[in-house]
Amino acid sequence: MGTYFVKARRGKIRWRVIDAEGAVLGRLAARASQVLTGKNSADYTPHADHRDGIIIVNAEKIRLTGRKLEQKKYRHYTGYPGGLREVSARDYLASKPERLIREAILGMLPKSRMGDRLAGRLKVYAGPAHPHQAQKPEPISLGR
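and the corresponding C-alpha cells:
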C-alpha cells in the first residue's frame, strides 16, 4: 500500500467568502489560511495547489481581544537612517483595516513560491461589497 498523493488541480479557482463582522482577528486569519492552503479538504497534500480563493468582506468590523488595540504595534523600516515606522493596531484598523487582516493571514501562509501564489488569491475589502460576484463565491462560517 503506497502513499496517496493528489494530482495537481487545474482549471477554475473555487472562491469562498467570509464575513468578518464581529470575528476575532486571529481566529479569522487561522480559518482563512487553512482554506487557502487546502488543509480543510480531505485530500490535502502539502505541495499541491488546491485552487481555493478567499474573499473577506467587512474588514472594518473585525475585533481584537484584550488590550491588543493599544499594545500591538506594526513596524516597518523605510531603508533610511531613523526610518523605523511604528503604527498601533487601533490606527491601522481606523485607516487600513484590509491591511490588518491581510498581514495576519499572510503570516500564517508558507514562505515560498506556493505561499506567494496563495497570497494572490486573498482579497480583502473594508465594506460589505466586493466586485467578485461573477465568480459565485460560497459563504463560509467561522463556527461562531
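(Above: one complete record from the training split.) The chain has a mean pLDDT of 92.
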